[in-house]
């Protein structure tokens, strides 16, 4: 008595109404789930059912047992981490992707998926102003893309000998800063380079990578017998959205002959705005670039766009050709399984295509500009307030601030801001996470959710003030 | 003029009807797309649209430009590769997953997702009869799981020094066979071990790993100064579904003190049948196990289930804790980002939960048993036929056979079978891929698509006979 297509049709219509209702009402729900650890688990039977259950039962449990434990990433007042934004056209595409269930490992297994991926990546390259000749591929996450970049660098430096013989005796060094994303260290470990060979380059006062310190670190390492391998610069760090000065850093990486990967996972989207094209100045002198359409370009997670200067080098790093994957079309088309780690691949290009076409480039620009406008507005309010202060300057739609009531010392301020964030998050009204900036415990705010409107931003500012006042009383 | 929720509701209902119609009619479509390389690409504009386009336009293009380039993995007569099976309850779950758009990197970002993942993995462990105390986690692909296993082995062997200092001077060796999946070699390269340190252990006549040869290889390596690291055994190889004799191999791996990973990506599902529980005999002496519910358990790609004996060891291999991911709940709950490579994670447990509950364990068993029955039926027909022969014996719902018209030599047979596969695939009636078994070019058939019924199996056998006869005339 398994579900047939007739029942599927009815149930899917039922779900569509639930989905649309949910999206209409999500802003009335608590953003951050208030469940305690183990609260969901204990509602779930310890063993799977022997007999199939009706969809009514399953869906009822979804609503009653699962939903209270969901933190709502699609809530307009989700200001935490970086957004993982869905959007209506993207959800529609996911519905079709799920139905087709295509496995897009090579061209032959899904020709349309391979060719749509090629084209949509060309579109993105144009939208961002990436150099002609660069090629793109969709991965699941920036974590994977960064690992892929470091592996490509490793193979380039060793003439593909690491792939064959393993990582050699001379340590290869990767350069980043203490602000760089944790995935860099993970990648360095995975690639067999060792986290001790991840060099944390000093930052300037604004927490961006210091080009002078970078050059010094590379040269010292070279003199000490290490092999300088790759520099990871970041356009928009996770803690503060610090934006490295690419055009200055590329001078160093080029002169020193070191691979240069650019992690623009969140902020990369801003480069679709002519007024922010400068973000990518110098990119032509880099080797690879990653940004996540699944963050600030409204494409459902997961959808990471990874671009490389030298596709042959990338493919040579990852290509393995067993008998069962030999096809006639090989060489004429892109077999994306050779562009990364996983063999299996979802048809992710479809959602990217739906989103770009549905919004249009101008629609996406308008939305991103609007979010940056919200950032400017929020910054203005903080600057005008006597109770709050910015502790890391706004970049785009992001800043780090803190509550700063009078006559309170630094330790007390850290404690108060920690309490304020907890109070705010517990209220369910919005979700904020923290950043520690030079010892100061601050509140990060990302004003970039798909459904964020002016009224939400105003309301958020009022509520933050109210909750701070309550805490003070 | 971006799509609002009101329009989304209408469009999603429209898509549901298309989706149900598609699933009802998919068996009338050509299984394998017949497009030529570049045929889709040239229909797609070179640049993205400036203005947003209507959903009517986008969906029309999806139907006219994309659909002809789709190879239909959900067609009941998709007999190629291994199936990537969706199912009605799984698609319903994907719709909800896409709508919630939850990012499940840590418990705090989606408590229900983390706890549902914990519970559904416990369910799977029970269904498969995995040893008590093993823990599971969902990854995207078996490629990732295998890499994770090899990295865990690497860290165990080196006391976590490889993570810190990089892969050392003494080569670590991984043992598999020539039949093992290409992802093993990819993982060995990525982990910095070098593909020259992937030892291809001799197989027995049935293409399974020879335990005697394995022991010899390990001992020789140890004597030669190599560090034996890990053995990858396979329950169901890609080319022939050869099933390694686990209970014999574990004696060797245990006595030699080598990590043992079991790749049961496709065939693992069979272990939910009591009559095939023997497949996993010896698993308690292994270290890790992977199988793909997205293959033969009707859960949309991607959904890989990875199980480990020692979760602390796994977590210690991958854990990195930056300030922005510190949470109060840490330690009480599972933060699955520390169980693998990617930080970002989709809410994949939901589709696994929907599928297990909708079918029930008995419903899944019935379906898998039915597929094995189709395999037996097909095997019987081949054995009864004077024109066909089995060149690798049936395991489960899988075999490799070839057309064998009289008085034709081996070279000619290879050529004829290649032509036959091409003819069959070109017909659109079914999709088959090849395997070369000891120099013989054969036809692999996997009788395991979600919607496969008896009538399709019969029809396929008739059509293969007809097309062979046409080729002969």
Structure description:
Two copies of one chain form a homodimer. The first copy, chain A, has 473 residues and is α/β, with parallel strands linked by helices. Chain A has two domains: 102-346, Type I PLP-dependent aspartate aminotransferase-like (Major domain) (Aspartate Aminotransferase, domain 2, 3-Layer(aba) Sandwich), CATH 3.40.640.10; 357-472, Aspartate Aminotransferase, domain 1 (Alpha-Beta Complex), CATH 3.90.1150. The first copy, chain A, has helices at 5-25, 55-66, 88-100, 111-128, 142-157, 161-165, 182-190, 211-223, 246-256, 293-296, 311-318, 349-384, 410-427, 454-472; strands at residues 135-139, 172-177, 198-201, 227-234, 259-263, 288-291, 304-308, 388-395, 398-403, 433-437, 440-446. In chain A, helix 9 links the parallel strand 4 and strand 5 (259-263). The mean pLDDT of chain A is 96. At the A-B interface, helix 1, helix 2, helix 3, helix 4 and helix 5 of A face helix 1, helix 2, helix 3, helix 4 and helix 5 of B.
The CATH C-level class name of the largest domain in chain A = Alpha Beta
From the alpha-carbon coordinates, what is the Rg of chain A to the nearest angstrom?
24 Å
Placed side by side, the strands forming the largest sheet of chain A appear as 1-7-6-5-4-2-3
**General form of chain A:** globular
Helix fraction of chain A?
Answer: 40-55%
- What is the CATH superfamily classification of the largest domain in chain A? Type I PLP-dependent aspartate aminotransferase-like (Major domain)
- The CATH topology of the largest domain in chain A is what? Aspartate Aminotransferase, domain 2
Strand content of chain A: 5-15%
Unreliable spans of chain A are none
Structural class of chain A: alpha/beta
The strand count of chain A comes to 11
Distance between the termini of chain A: 61 Å
What's the oligomerization state?
homodimer
Largest interface: A-B, 154 and 154 residues
- Let me know the average pLDDT of chain A: 96
